[in-house]
Specification:
alpha/beta; 10 strands
Amino acid sequence: MLISEILRRMADRRPRLAFRPTSRVVNSAAMNATFDPTQPLAAAPEPWDSTSQPSPRDGPPYHLTEMIAAEPDLAVRILERLADPQGPAGRLAGEVGQAASNGSPIVVTGCGTSEHAAQGVVEILREALRGAGLPAGPGTILAAQALELALDPPTAGLVIGISHEGASAATNRALAAAAAGGARTALITASGGSPGAQLVETVVETVELDHSWCHTIGYVSPLVAAAAVGAHLASRPLDPGEVRALLASGSRDEPGAEAIAARLADSRTILAVGSGADRPAARELVLKIEEAAWVPSAMRDLETFLHGHLPATDASTGLVLILTDREGRIDRVARARQALAATAIIGVRAAAILARDLDGELPPELTPAGRLLVDEAPSLPSPVAALLGTATPLQLLTERISRARGTNPDPIRRDDPVYRAAADATE
């Protein structure tokens, strides 16, 4: 099929992603009282349609609050759905393994939250390839931004799209271009009925939809699905109970998150710093803070941060170091200690999301704004433990910064006519 025909069909199915008020406003007090985080979230409607603006709430708990609480049990359900080695996750594992064996490129792509999830998926699958004894270098598997991939698609190998609703125009364009060029294609998404799912050969469904437009389920779901694919690829079972416990532990320290939020909420800008498998989490934290709390934020790789960026920081700068990756930890900790020492001299409001074992290795005075601790989960593959371990803490911190600033995170400011118009302009 010609790429023009693929794109025409994709355009015919393109959802209306601009702001549109929900036709049914649910009483927030009643909904708050009845929400059960252990129960499945709604799936996409059939026939497929894009989500409406989240129902308005005057204050917490927001939809975002509930989505964070829902993630531990959601992860168990996703892993159970994808446990069959003959099912979609097993088939995608086979395609990943085949591409690596043939020396063909594997590219994972997405936009926004899904782009950060795609970067995390690369970390998870790279480790699984190594576990299977297959090639796993940067030339084998890499992440690519969707627009850039659409403009320069591969002509062979495997392209895996990440899209929560399956409706991101740039991601779907990249998948269409890759298919037209001769690459195999797959999509990790909530719905097999979505526009993106119609463009690919393999669909891994996560089924349940985010209730907030400040996507958290949209970040965790593809990471859990990738963990399932990696488990099939490396022939290494994954315990859903351990994944659940890790996600649940990350959102327990509400007082700690509130204390950090109080220090960061009026920052001029907030920096998120990470290295290794913690880089996707740092990027996702930046996006969440900007969407939910409207504070200008930026991600810096740990080493990059120390090469020219310090002069732009001062006592009005907030910083969150994310440090949980077990790989190369000695070197990462040493460099992180130097980075925090430098920011302490300047007076930066530094906080951290740390692996619990590192709490004693970094003096508390280096993180004057506080720290959240992440369980180690040594039985899980290192990138799975890092990415899932940091997911709920970064989301909880975002939600508390939003509370401290008095913003509603759910509509990502599209309830304001100016920002609604700005969103419409991107369509």
